[in-house]
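User: Let's play a game. I give you a shape written as tokens, and you guess the letters that built it. Ready? Here's round one.
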């Protein structure tokens, strides 16, 4: 997969891409990430990337020319690339969205700054607008990193053998996990996990996953894949919760 990022703060990306799974995915060639400074596509003598909005009002807007020149330059050898604008006005980012983006061969991220970007960029060059949540960041850079992190770990081979896929795939929260020691300050690991009975462990985990989702994110439960066996577990959970 190829990922191009258009930003006026290219340095912001160095650290996250030099650690852990992202670093490994880059060095092993699973993903080719290229950072472009929008300023390099600005032709005016001060390399300006922002300007005052027509009609007045506070704040500055990102100018269309440098961004569009950047997109066109990247697309020259990569025509099918999907252009994603990071903005709090976009569609909310979810695991499902990450799965969809991970199927693309090529993505271009535009990181907005200031009060936003000229509307013509959004209208004519952008394929998708993504928000990572209902809050306003100082720019799209951190948001792009979040989106890219969740996409790259889904590329086949990005997670090593020890790292497994998550239950979020199925729309549920993860069950509780424990590691050694078996007893820590008097707090024990649940007995079933030490039993060696894989079938029982699987049922316990599924139930805990359903329980956690019921308590914390009932909204997810409505969309999740629920089997007949899950329905039995959910009925038990309802009773357990009523009894406190
Ligand atoms: N830029 C500023 N805030 C943002 C957000 N919440 N999501 C995506 N891009 C942003």
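Assistant: Ready! My guess for every position:
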């Amino acid at each position: 997969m190829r990922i191009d990022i258009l930003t006026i703060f290219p340095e912001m990306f160095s650290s996250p891409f030099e650690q852990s799974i992202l670093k490994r995915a880059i060095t092993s060639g699973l993903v080719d990430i290229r950072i472009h400074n929008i300023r390099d596509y600005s032709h005016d003598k001060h390399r300006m990337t922002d300007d005052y909005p027509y009609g007045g009002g506070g704040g500055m807007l990102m100018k269309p020319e440098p961004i569009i020149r950047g997109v066109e330059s990247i697309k020259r050898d990569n025509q099918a690339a999907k252009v994603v604008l990071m903005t709090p006005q976009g569609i909310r980012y979810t695991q499902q969205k990450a799965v969809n983006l991970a199927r693309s061969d090529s993505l271009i991220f535009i990181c907005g700054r200031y009060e936003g970007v000229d509307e013509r960029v959004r209208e004519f060059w952008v394929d998708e607008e993504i928000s990572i949540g209902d809050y306003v960041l100082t720019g799209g850079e951190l948001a792009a990193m979040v989106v890219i992190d969740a996409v790259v770990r889904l590329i086949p081979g990005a997670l090593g053998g020890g790292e497994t896929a998550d239950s979020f795939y199925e729309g549920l929260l993860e069950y509780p996990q424990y590691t050694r020691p078996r007893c820590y300050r008097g707090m024990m690991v649940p007995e079933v996990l030490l039993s060696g009975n894989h079938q029982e462990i699987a049922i316990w985990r599924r139930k805990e996953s359903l329980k956690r989702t019921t308590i914390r994110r009932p909204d997810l439960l409505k969309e999740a894949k629920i089997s007949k066996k899950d329905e039995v577990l959910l009925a038990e959970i309802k009773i357990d919760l009523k009894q406190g």
